[in-house]
Amino acid sequence: MKKVVNILTVTGFMFLGAVQSTYAQAAEADKTFHQELKQRFIEGDPKFMGIVLVALILGLAIAIERIIYLNMATTNTKKLVASVDDALSSGGVEAAKEVCRNTKGPVASIFYQGLERADEGLEAAEKAVVGYGGVQMGLLEKNVSWLSLFIALAPMLGFMGTVIGMIEAFDKIAVANDISPAVVAGGIKIALLTTVFGLVVAIILQIFYNYIVSKIDSIVNNMEDASISLIDLLAKYKK
């Protein structure tokens, strides 16, 4: 949980710093940052800014849920392997299964499935470990594809707002038959604000995504190493 808090804190500061630097030149001395951000959000056309904001909220919800789940799924595999080894030596398969039942995480679950098939031979135990390992990998990667979707969607929505803002600017030029800055400023402002907001959202979610993927890879590697160790323990126990 400490890692989750640290990551959220760092990301929050990065988000605030990025938005503040973007709007620093336009900020007025008598306005708070919250008021300035609200004003820019409205100026950027709430229709598109709101959709990008929803993508940010949903993406953060998925990222935080995955980070909490992955941290809870992290197990000290060396300690677990040693405990299972001791249990097999002292109490047999049933004692080892009890150790796995009392241990949280996917590695302990995989061990339990392998021990369940231990009486059927090493080959059956190995198949159970491999099969259930695939199930656990699916649980670890659950909803990560949605997070990648929001990463791709946020800047695309921002660019869509950019295109629509430029279209509005050219429409005003056609109506007024004038290309002065006052005529096109509104449309260009919408275009720039939606682009910036979409990119900031994508950057924030990308940081979370990379952390989650690296965490999944670490857990999967531990699962594979521990599974090999379990088969070795069962082979030693069968002798």
From TrEMBL:
Membrane topology, record value: Multi-pass membrane protein
Instruction: Give the InterPro entries listed for this entry.
Output: ExbB/TolQ_transport, MotA_ExbB_proton_chnl
Hey, what's the signal peptide range on this chain?
1-26
Listed A to Z, the keywords are: Cell membrane, Membrane, Protein transport, Signal, Transmembrane, Transmembrane helix, Transport
* Primary localization class, coarse: membrane
Q: Where are the transmembrane segments?
A: 50-69, 146-170, 190-213
Pfam families, sorted: MotA_ExbB
A GO biological-process term: protein import
* Cellular component annotations (GO), alphabetically ordered: plasma membrane
UniProt entry tagged with the keyword Protein transport: yes
Q: Where in the cell is it found?
A: Cell membrane; Membrane
- Residue ranges occupied by any MotA/TolQ/ExbB proton channel domain in the UniProt entry: 104-224
State the family it belongs to. Answer: Belongs to the exbB/tolQ family.
Protein name (Swiss-Prot/TrEMBL): MotA/TolQ/ExbB proton channel family protein
Name the species this protein comes from: Tenacibaculum pelagium
The organism's taxonomy opens as:
Bacteria, Pseudomonadati, Bacteroidota, Flavobacteriia, Flavobacteriales
